[in-house]
Amino acid sequence: MKVDILFAIMAVQEVLFFAPIAKRLRDEEGLKVAFLTFHEAGDDILEKEGVPYFSLHKIKNSEGKKKHIFLKPEVVDSTLRDVQERLGINIRKLILHEMLTTNRLDEKYLSSKVMTYHAIMDSIFRDNDIGCVVQELGGFIAPQLLYHVSRYYRKQHVFIEPAMFPKRIVFTLDDMNADIAGYGEGVTASDEELKKLLEQYSAGKTVVIPKKDKHFFQDMSLKRLFSMDNFRRLSRKLYHKYILGREEEYNAILWYIVYHFIKFFKRKVLSFYYSEPVEGEKYIYYPFHVPLDVQLTMRCPEFLNQEALVGYIARVIPLGCRLYVKEHPAAIGGHQLSRMRDILRDKNIRLIHPRHNSFDLIKNAGCVITINSKVGFEAIMQGKPVVVLGRTFYRGKGVTVDVNNVSEISGAVTAATGGAGNPANRDYFLNKAFEWSYKGELYENSPENIENFFRSLRTFMLKSGIIKSDKYTAEGAVK
After folding, report:
1. Which residue in 43, 69, 87, 179 has a CA-CA distance of 20 to 30 Å to 195?
2. The model's pTM
3. Same domain, 249 and 282
4. What is the span of the domain harbouring residue 363?
C-alpha cells in the first residue's frame, strides 16, 4: 500500500486531533494518508472515520509476536544486537524513559518489547511504500523506535512539539533534536505578533503552558490529586484496559496512582525545606527540569541526576552568591526525597517555594543555569545571562554561555555575570525563533486551531519538500 503520510498516535486524544487533519490532506491535497496506532481504543475512531491504519497491538497479537518471550536467551541477545547495529542505536538508552516513567525496571521485558515492535515496524515499512512519518515528540519505546526505523529506510520523519511561544508549534525534520533552520542567514524583520507576545509575557509573567499539559501545572495538593480530570482519565483507562481489553502504551495504571500519592507525600515533607527569596541577596538561579521529561531522558540523559548537578554547582559558583533552585510547576514532589534532603544540607542552596513565579526569580538573578529548559528561553527574553549545559535550540546562537563539560561551569558563571549581553543578538535570535515556529497547538480541537494546525503542517511539508503541490502560494502559509 502506498502511504504518503503516516501519522503515529499513542492516545485517543491524538486520534481525535489528527484524524480531521489527515482527512483534509487526503481530500484537499490528494495525499494517501494512514495511521500507525499504539492504542487500540483509537482504532475504533479511525474505523468510523474511514481512515486506514496499522494497529501495532492487533498485529502483535494476531501474528503471535509474543512468542519471543520463549526464545532462548542467546537468540534474544543476538537479535537485539542485530537491531542495535542495524539502526545504530543503544537499546539501554532507548528504553530509559519508559523504564523510569512506568517503574518497569526489567530490562529483559523492555528489550523484548523493542524486538517485537521492531519486527512489526520493519514489516510495515518493508511491505508498504511509506513517504513520511508524522508524530508528536515522545520518549517511550514506540515513538523513538519508529523514528529510527524511518531513518533506516530513508523515509522522512517529522517530530512535533510545542514552541516557546503560546499556541505555536515547531516541526523537526529527520532529527531527534530541534534546532532553528538557517540560523545566521540573512536579516529578520521584527514581527508585530512577536512584540505583542513579549509584552504579554512581561505583563503576565508566564511564557507558555500548552493546553494538553495544563492539568500538570498545579501544586501537588489534595485538590489536584482528586480532581475530576484525574478521575475521568483513570476511569477511561480502567474501562479500556479491563472492560474492553484494549491495549495501549500508557498502561502502568497502578504505578501512576501510587506515584501521585508519593508525590503528594514528598510535597508535604518538602514544605519544611522551602525558602522565600531574600531581598537584596545575590544568587544564581537553577530551575529544576521535570525529572523524567523527554528533554532529559532522550535529549540529555547525562544530566538525569539533577540533584548531584545542583550540589556541584553550589560548590563552584562565586563566593557571596547563593544558589536558588525551584521545582518545575509540573513536577512538584517529583524529585527523589533523599537526594533533595542531601543537597539542602548545603546552606548555600535555597529551595524556593513553588508559589513563586520564575519570572521574578529570573529578573533578580545574577544569571540562570539550565540544561535545556523553557526558563532558559525566558531568561533570554528578559535579557538575562544564561549558562547552558545541554543540547537545546538556543545553544550556540550568541545569546548564551555554553558549557561542554561540568568542569567549565565555574568559569562560565563568571563570564556570564561579568559582562552585558548584546541586545542586537537577542533581538535577532527571538525573531528567528518566532519565524521557526508555526501557528497551532497540539490536541486543542477548536475549528480555528484545527485550521491553523492543518495549514501549518501543510506549509512545513511543502517547504521541506515532503509533499509537492502546484497550489502552494505564500498566502497559504500560516506563520
Report:
1. 179
2. 0.92
3. no
4. 202-207+273-432
